[in-house]
Fold this sequence. Notes:
Strand order of the largest sheet: 3-2-1-4-5-6
Shape: globular
Number of domains: 1
CATH architecture: 3-Layer(aba) Sandwich
Amino acid sequence: xxxxxxxxxxxxxxxxxxxxxxxxxxxxxxxxxxxxxxxxxxxxxxxxxxxxxxxxxxxxxxxxxxxxxxxxxxxxxxxxxxxxxxxxxxxxxxxxxxxxxxxxxxxxxxxxxxxxxxxxxxxxxxxxxxxxxxxxxxxxxxxxxxxxxxxxxxxxxxxxxxxxxxxxxxxxxxxxxxxxxxxxxxxxxx
Length: 190
């Protein structure tokens, strides 16, 4: 049975921190693949303004191009409304009964697991992987596999701000993603 890491997020834009974290989890748990899964509307970010889903998916494709074992999974973009992990995993398990899923979350999300939609059912369908971060506790009533990764302090929010202010973004995200953002004039670039 193939072991698949699911890495969900808005990826608005995807950056080198995402890639580093995914690669560390893949290696630590000896996963066969990492599927990057952009959210339609994350339940905890429904009021935020995001780039169109087609832009976020394209940026992800550019970010992982040529990376062994990395692929995009647009399943959440096929649905309308909030992207609940439970509903997505039910669909993925129906489509891929021969796969074992590991859902990757940052340490900052571990404390919120009790609030996740249908969490008790969800933990029976997959294994959670928590990537440690300084300043966050990884204690949970739910079983979470902990993985350590080098810290790379970059965020999509920071990148959007840097692009809108015309500030340097070199080495923070893949060059192909940066060029796409500039070409499409995303985040206030011109």
